Fold:
Amino acid sequence: MAMTLLGIVFGVAFFVFTQAQTTGFAKFFEKTILGTNGAIRISDRFQSNGAITSTEEDGQRFDLGAGERYVEGVDYPSRLRDAISDFPEITGISEMLEGRATLDTGVRSQGVQPIGIRLQDHLTVSDLANQVVFGSLEDFDADRSGLLLGHRLAERLNLRPGDKVNLVSNSESLRLRVSAIFETGISEIDKRRIYLDLATARSLFRQPAGGAVFQIDIRDPVEAPAVAAQMQAALGHRVVSWQEREKVWLDVFKVLRLSSALTVSTIILLSGLGMFNVFALMVMEKTRDIAILRAVGFTRSDVARIFLLQGGIVLLSGALIGCLFGALGTYGISKAPLHIRGVFSTDHFVVNWDISHYLWAIGISMVVMAIASWIPARRAARVEPAKIIREAT
Structure:
């Protein structure tokens, strides 16, 4: 019985511990994505032309089917911005202009993804203010020739705030100054993305109007797919939620959570098998005692209740102690150092404190232990006292 108790304790504790970690990293990934690329993105316009268009990977038009096509970018951003503002869920709107260019330091050059923004607007849809590691956003906001560089890009080109660089596109070359360096923790962004003023970006790409995209923030990011569907139907533009955009990674984290839950639940299952064996042997050894109880007036339900009560005491004790150990383990691992740079950036284990982890652990334990206790209890309740006493004599 003591081993069964320990099995429940460790099963519950490990369940809470592993779920806190896997959901913690998943939530942190979601926070990083929302703080970098926003909850919703509005890009290409739908256009009907009565024909089927061909798809070009880097071209202006993409196949939608009969009579429809995508036309890259937003042609009238001010009008679309006004339309977006009418949706009550919206909390931030940032107009952006994206393109391709080469960043040249005079010693080395690197292909980059420039994004033109209005800083104050972009701060409402991103966590850029907290991602700056060197320099200041005030310098960038005050200087139309300022640049914000990703941390890995700055390291590769050996750039620091205040350095001068050339940004070269297919149509223009500009001399700009590094105002600040940011780090999102997402390697593909940190080694390629740069931000510059929207007006400067339009000058760089010689695109005085149109071609914009919008990054949107909403009150409840969980509702992004529903809001995106409404906006796409109303605005006639391609609207993508962050869940659709990051579906692969979200599925990976979901599988990890499920896999860890199933793996750790086997400890609880083994504890249930242990309790079943203990109670089954107890019923066999205590058959005469059970018969005497029945003979003096105990009913079948009274006998079954004895075994169920014993199982309940073990379950309650194990679950409470397991939850305590799980909480202590979660707190301890949250303080452990861990250096990760890739899909997000963190220097320690990320955990998620959620009461549902404890409820799920207790619920699984209750189901397993109830079955393990009920079968021997049912067998004990079926003992016939007259037959057992007659055999004993």
Summary: Residues 15 and 262 are 9 Å apart (CA to CA). The domain at 100-204 is CATH 2.40.40 (Barwin-like endoglucanases). Residues 49-67 have pLDDT under 50 and may be disordered.
